[in-house]
DNA sequence: TATTTAAAACTACAAATGTCGTTGGTGCTT
DNA sequence: AAGCACCAACGACATTTGTAGTTTTAAATA
């Protein structure tokens, strides 16, 4: 259930569901996708595909369905991070950090907080 | 020229080209893709698509073409890293590092080397 | 209960992607 | 010069993805 792969568009839906502490209806989701200009049917299609993949589940309440994520947010993100690092940084986070650092892509604040984290 | 997007399969080709210090022919590339079971035509199609996108260039030498990367390896990797961090870690590398750290996904060696890097 | 209507289901379709098969041209060998 | 071998060009096709229109069903209401 945790190895589900989702697309960019589907991820936008997942983000909404992850952010909510209660199940949401398709319309709730549309509302929270303010920036996106997706039609209801588009969101609906994405929800179907996500359910098909096992990334979400739903229950009927009244006339609508209410959706809940099954795919774990943290696990998914970790998997994606590791996938990228494996693909282009030889599996080592350090390689990625070095590359970003040398390109001045890491904020001073991030540096401080990472140092603090590693000091423990 | 640097904002080129390439697919997973195309990336495999780019990796070979990045690794080589001289231009390679399609057959050279096939040879170095030992794990992949791609047919010559597959590699050839990927090379065409990459050239179309401006990610590589080529010159005719004798009967074959020899390919050279145009897309900069480091720039590409940084772009991908930033893209992922922006997409799922709110744009902050720290968030990603924290997540990986808490999931015990960072090797002790990587931790040491990152600390050293940041100490400078 | 018949009617209205909101929401889900079904269908569609173009572009991108992975993966080749086939055709055709050009340089190398006799 | 003719034939052969090698390689590139072209075309193809299934699958995935983004995006949505249309039809059907079931809930709400008159």
Helices and strands of chain A, in order, run as HEHHEEHHH
Strand order of the largest sheet of chain A: 1-3-2
Tell me the structural class of chain A. mainly alpha
* Record field, number of beta strands of chain A: 3
Reading off the top of the CATH hierarchy, the class of the largest domain in chain A is best stated as: Mainly Alpha
- Gyration radius of chain A, rounded: 18 Å
The percentage of residues in β strands of chain A lies in: 5-15%
Q: Helicity of chain A, in percent?
A: 55-70%
Global outline of chain A: elongated
Question: Main traits of this protein?
Answer:
120 residues, 2 domains, 6 helices, DNA-binding, three-stranded antiparallel β-sheet, mainly alpha, homodimer, Arc Repressor Mutant, subunit A
Question: Can you summarize this structure?
Answer:
Chain A has 120 residues and is mainly alpha-helical. Chain A has helices at 8-19, 26-32, 40-53, 73-88, 93-102, 108-119, and strands at 24-25, 56-61, 64-69.
Question: What would your notes on this structure say?
Answer:
Two copies of one chain form a homodimer. The longest helix of chain A has 16 residues, at 73-88. In chain A, 22% of the residues are buried. In chain A, strands 1-3-2 form a three-stranded antiparallel beta sheet. In chain A, helix 2 packs across helix 3 (40-53). Chain A has helices at residues 8-19, 26-32, 40-53, 73-88, 93-102, 108-119; strands at residues 24-25, 56-61, 64-69. Chain A has two domains: 8-69, Winged helix-like DNA-binding domain superfamily/Winged helix DNA-binding domain (Arc Repressor Mutant, subunit A, Orthogonal Bundle); 73-119, no CATH class. Chain A is elongated. Chain A is mainly α and 120 residues long. The interface between A and B is medium-sized, with 32 and 32 residues. Chain A binds a DNA duplex (30 and 30 nucleotides) through residues 7-10, 25-27, 38-42, 44-46, 48-49, 62-65.
